[in-house]
Amino acid sequence: MTARTARGGRAARGGAAPVIVTDPGPHGVAVHGRAFAHAVTALDPGVTVCARGDLARIPPGVPLHAQFTDRLWAESLEEALTAFEAVADRHPISVTLHDVPQESDGERNLPRRRAVYAAVAARARGVAVNSGHERGLLAEHGVWDGPVAVIPLPVGAPASGERPGADGSVGVLGYFYPGKGHDEAAEAAAEAGGTRLTVLGRASDGHADDLAAFVARAAAWGVEVEVTGWLDDEAMAARCRAVAVPVIAHRHVSASGSLSSWIAWGRRPLAVENRYITEMAALRPGTIAVTAADRLADGIRSAIDQPETTWHGVAPLPMDARDVAAAYRAWWGELT
């Protein structure tokens, strides 16, 4: 626990912040949650931060705020709901929902995910998401039609320093899993005359065989794939700043930490148009090169010919970590 002890934690009544719940490990939502907690305590050092495993130290009835995605809370959907309900039985809790249910979950998993997320939202004293797109998904899939706060993922201050020479590859950032857009990026790279693609990360748990199959498919298209594996923040930033063309081609997206990272590292990624990408391009004008799916190869070719277009140069960036922390503080003050 940091910033304030459990006994000194302040209830979120009268405008005060709740205890911020964090999770360990490399999961993207866990990493975001810890960075979010740091931003909130930087804004208000009196706020308590507590790891979820240490919540027994927080007196019952003290309000909490947590990040929720089922894979972060347990191995199965039902176990994740049980874990959340156990916390909600002791504390009023507000949540930021991530990876919200959508069609890509499939015929079997969509009803299960819908039921779990609906139950979490119903137990929460407040529900937040990171985009209007996700708020739309909650309504469209019958998850939640109550009030929803929309507070975007933060973007850090743009990286400074000289721009490195391009390594000639198309880059896709984040964990590999089917549907993340690696196939689309590799096919488009091949059509554009590219011969290299960098997977900036590792396979998501359970998808190592899918990654190997993708590498083989790309090779058949004439594209050599490099998989960096896990890298620390400094090394990942260096690699992401070095790729020739940063690409985002998710088939289905909830919110994208990868997009925020590209922008924070000064890059202007080439992103296939969808509702989320359109929303983020409007939020931070000039930071995203939006393209139609059938024009991705043209976009890659253009970016290779004009490498300066893959950098945005926008500063300051709207909704940085402090802005996001302040937005949450304001929202918590409205909750009862």
Averaged pLDDT, please? 93
For the biggest β-sheet, the strand order reads 2-1-3-4-5-6
CATH superfamily of the largest domain: Glycogen Phosphorylase B
Distance between the termini: 25 Å
Number of domains: 2
CATH architectural arrangement of the largest domain: 3-Layer(aba) Sandwich
Give the SSE order as H and E letters: EHEEHHEHEHEEHEHEHEHEHEHH
Rounded to the nearest angstrom, the radius of gyration is 20 Å
Structural class based on helices, strands and sheet pairing: alpha/beta
Contiguous low-pLDDT stretches (5 residues minimum) are 1-14
**For the report, how would you describe the main beta sheet?**
6 strands, parallel
Proportion in β-strands: 5-15%
Q: Which percent bin holds the helix content?
A: 25-40%
What's the number of helices? 12
Report the count of strand segments: 12
Shape estimate: globular
CATH topology of the largest domain: Rossmann fold
Broad CATH class of the largest domain: Alpha Beta
Task: Record keyword descriptors for this entry.
disordered N terminus, Rossmann fold, 336 residues, alpha/beta, 6-stranded parallel beta sheet, 12 helices, D-inositol 3-phosphate glycosyltransferase, single chain, 2 domains, globular
